[in-house]
Sequence to fold (383 residues):
Amino acid sequence: MNIDSKIAILCITSNGRSLACKIKRSLNDGDIYFINNKRDENSLDDNEVISKYLEEDVEIYTVKKRLKFFVEDIFDKYEYILFIMATGIVVRTIAPLVTSKFSDPAILVTDEKGSNIISLLSGHMGGANEMTLHISDLINSNPVITTATDINKKSSLDIIAKKLNGHIVNFRDNVLDVNAMLVNGDAVGLYIDGEYNIDTRGFTVLDNSKSLESSISSDEELKKINLNTIVVISNKENLQIDKYYEDKYRIIKVTPRDIVIGIGCRRDTESHLLQDSLEDFLIKNNIDINSIKEIGSIEVKKDEKAIIDLSENLNVPFRVLSVEEISQVDYLFEKSEWVKKSVGVYSVAEPVAHLLSDGNVIIEKNKYKGITFSVGRLKIWYM
Fold:
């Protein structure tokens, strides 16, 4: 079973199948599975139990397997699963499979007439709420969303983190605590270090035209409310706040993953040297290592062990760019004839950072022992 779509649409009646086709056409995405459970679940493998046919212009898979066993097969293969059937059936089917709101797929349920569509599981992190609203608009149905922050028209820390692809230490505990405080009307400060376009409803927003410490110390309104928790959106390693305020407030940092690193290095550079050099570079430029989204270099470096090891250690992708791609922009940066003779372009780190960040280089070339780094920043605040 080859899966290219993000959403699986499961139905058990002919009316449900018609609605599934309508939804797939509207989304321009989705795998439709029509469940026919007359066959014994242990009798056939996937190739035998699934057949494909066209209903008008829509591709549909017929599944001759019991629903609960088929859902087991696909539960971790899709970002979203939409069930067109009674909610009770869905609850009993997915109950043994549910593990965590931070890893489960988004589960949506609608009746076969599409009158109501329910965000059942993974409303925030999985995106079920957002998809529920989207599909309800497409098919003119009533969206049913029950997450407390949404019904109280408040923002939520997990949604902010998701939008920014952000890193939070002790993610689960901090998300649960902050969201509960927002729902209960408790004061939670929010300092946005950058031009990030996020939902601030329910937060006490601090003045980001000043430093974090200046904003806290000079805000007379903060002294009038019982504020002890501040969420800080920043990709800086050091927030440069006095220990007095660190002790007074619970600071929860959300680190957006919006930094990309262009790398040039000599052949057979030692892995530890590249790692140590990058860490030193990040400290000197006050960049949180958790903000790195991607690293990249020229195609001749695709097998460079040090960069591959760095990618694995950082748990980020290593993107390889061709000479042709780099040569389109290398004229923008300082030229090196030696680099040109060696790899076919005038420079590597800066044009790679330029390409990875869609032209937003924030730190130009920095040299170490046979290593160069350049930094770009993705404009995720526009997304």
About this structure: The first strand starts at residue 7 and ends at 11.
